[in-house]
Prior knowledge:
This protein is mostly helical. The chain is built from 12 helices and no strands. It binds a DNA duplex through helix 2, helix 3, helix 6, helix 9 and helix 10.
Amino acid sequence: MKRPGSSTSSVGPSERMTNLLQYYQAALKKLGPQHWWPGETPFEVCVGAILTQNTHWKNVEKAIANLKVRNLLDPHRLYQLPPAELAQLIRPAGYFNIKTNRLRNFLKFLLDGYDGDLEKMFSERLENLREKILSVKGIGPETADSILLYAGSKPVFVVDAYTKRILVRHQAIWEEAGYEEIQSHFTDHLPHDVPLFNEFHALIVNIGKNWCKTRNPDCEQCPWKEYLPTSGPYLPSFP
DNA sequence: TGCCAGGCCGGGT
DNA sequence: ACCCGGCATGGC
């Protein structure tokens, strides 16, 4: 459903899916805790957040493993590594030339601004820090927010492609909604609780991967089947 | 076997 | 302010 031009519609996305805690509880009950982020240290989370841009996590795991066995999951040592060597190590994660630069941009930011100390970085005021991380070339809103939530335990809700697809499917947002608008939908209707944000986003990704796929959606088995709109422009087609 | 994945940037309308 | 092409590997 596209946002109506300048006219106002009586029933629309803003009226739907505001009972987010029920969605959360239903998903958690069916799927259990997701134990996110899949990484052992905050720094590993940051690296993974950059490497997983538009990429299967399975591929990222291989790249991270390459870095880990060489003891390179450290800002100083990783930045010391010649870029060409870094590129080869992260090759399995795809876009390896681009991601080499993006990783190094973030490393330089971390080393120059905070002596490579993530704790020091995360001690900065949240609003300022988010803007600064976003200014690093190669780090957009999802990557920045993933770093803030999953590496820094900051109360920031992470939005990704699955989040948007599911919310559009549930008529909670318009198709044209941008990142911040989608994010607001959660932060406006949920307590700002770090474990909640952590688990909720992880559950969304799980549901997106398994039931809300672009090609082969399977709404019948989806844990949120009960909440699907029973009428609207998406039935029986799928966005 | 094609299609697609936990985006983002830069250049063009 | 959007829209689009480019970036790349490996799993299903």
